[in-house]
Amino acid sequence: MSGRAGRSGHPDAERGGATVCLLAVGLVFVLVGLFGAAVAAAGEARQRAAVAADLGALAGAGAAIEGAATACATAADIAGRNGGRLVGCRLDGLDVLVTVEVTVTPLPGLTRLAASTARAGPVPG
Predict the structure, then answer these.
(1) What is the rounded distance in angstroms from the CA atom of residue 67 to the CA atom of residue 113?
(2) DSSP H stretches of helix in the chain
(3) Tens-place pLDDT, residues 24-48
(4) Which domain holds residue 109?
(5) Given 7, 18, 32, 100, which residue has the most CB atoms within 10 angstroms?
(6) Is residue 11 a part of any domain in this protein?
(7) What is the DSSP code (8-state) at residue 66?
(8) How many domains in the chain?
(9) Apex CA 109: angle with CA 107 and CA 115, to 5°?
(10) DSSP state for residue 5 in the 8-state scheme
(11) Read out DSSP for 24-56?
């Protein structure tokens, strides 16, 4: 016999078991890391959508006196410059209500949309 006998009496019966366990633990760490990165990417996209919606609504409110078309065009421009896409815009008096979407790809082959709505206008009083 060339190898040492293990507890079962067979040579090298449990050789390599620690390697398999170490690989399994490593795979778990990689999967947890990927999940954490996906959650962080989704949170970042949600924040980008909120910022783009807020700034778009403020810009649109500044142009609301010129009408809905101008206000929404201004809001779309600012939302686009902040990484968003304007999907909804309406004028309610001098208040502008906008909805912005941001596309995020947290994992290859997985694309999601993050949306946010904001309202801006003059302070009543």
Answers:
(1) 29
(2) 17-62, 68-81
(3) 999 999 999 988 988 888 899 999 9
(4) 19-120
(5) 100
(6) no
(7) G
(8) 1
(9) 70
(10) B
(11) HHHHHHHHHHHHHHHHHHHHHHHHHHHHHHHHH
